[in-house]
Amino acid sequence: MNRRFILIIILIALVITDIAAFAQQQHRPYNLIMKDIQPAFAALRKDLDGNNGAAAAEDAAKLQALFTEVEGFWAPFDTQDAVGFAKRAGEAAAKIGTAAKANDIKGAQASLAVVQKTCASCHFAHREETAKGFLIRP
Amino acid sequence: MRRLVFSTLIILFVAVNLHAQAAADSTEQKQAEDFLKRLNALTDWHLTVDGKEDGLEPLVNNMMELFAPDALAEVPPHDKEQIGPVMLRGKDNVKKWLEAIARTQSRLEYYFKRQTEGPTGDFEGWRLVYSAKLPWGGTGIAFPIMGVWSQRDTRHRYMAPGVTFIQYGTDGKIKRLRLLLGEIEEVVPL
Fold first, then answer.
1. Distance between CA B75 and CA B44 in Å, rounded?
2. Is B6 inside any structural domain?
3. Percent of chain B at pLDDT above 90?
């Protein structure tokens, strides 16, 4: 009885660990994440330009989640700068959200510039444009 | 008299150019160029959108084609814990070293140091490759280089002057390699 119980516990623990590891490794294809960032960023900028703090906060949260996905993509590789770019962009998106909620549009705009700059730096280092489309440079 | 001087000058000009061409087309020159070309290509791989390495293995294999199975290579340290050069024995260890370069570095740009001397050398400089026939067969070549690379994790860029010594067996495969890099400096913006 005791042996069976221990065996079941071990099996459950193994399954949970595997699921957790699998979930950690799983992420959406990188091109899809990037394609979602572009409209989210455009919407955020439009909301900020229109002084719409509430909508901007929503867009910023969306953007922050997308940058977390980007960070997840780069995390398994030994590419600290890409992880850093994603982190920095995510933090800036969070700041935009906080500022937008407080209707501090100017502050949000400043953080938006940080996001834009960070995106550009990452693309410069890790995006290669070819005739067939973009390639991800490790 | 004028015609004679003119003809002599033309002949001299043609002779100098032919000589330069022969040096640039020599087997040793091609071997050195091929070595650097394949070495620099090691980091030209990409990631797929689902995060898989794409094209790394063929690049490493392309470089490995140059080596004999019993190759001996003395190379700069490629491990943070390593101080001083590393002696790699056999093709498998050389492959591990090349894979480490491909995975931990980026934007490799090893190039020949040019010497600006001699006819036409004042403008472009010569990519000198010294060569010797080995007493036991095969050829040895040596050429001064400048090693330039970035660390993949930090993107910090480095450069170092160095020399490459390669001994080829009679089958044209690399039996011995010594890649020496000295005074590694980080490239920082002014």
1. 21
2. no
3. 68
Question: Is position B12 within any domain?
Answer: no
Structural domains counted in chain B: 1
Q: Is B102 part of any domain? A: yes
Question: Is position B11 within any domain?
Answer: no
Tell which B residues from 21 to 50 touch A, by Cβ distance under 8 Å. Answer: 45-50
The span from the CA of B129 to the CA of B139, in Å, is 12
Interface predicted TM-score of the whole assembly (ipTM), two decimals: 0.76
- C-alpha closest to that of B164 among B178, B176, B147, B174: B178
Residue B151: list chain A partners with CB under 8 A. none
CATH of the domain at B147: 3.10.450.50
What is the H or E stretch that residue A126 is in? helix A105-126
pLDDT of A63-80, one tens digit each?
999 999 999 999 998 788
- CB proximity A27 to B under 8 Å: yes
End-to-end Cα separation, chain B, in angstroms: 58
Domain, as residue range, for B130: 27-187
Task: For the beta carbon of residue A6, count every other beta carbon within 10 angstroms.
Answer: 10
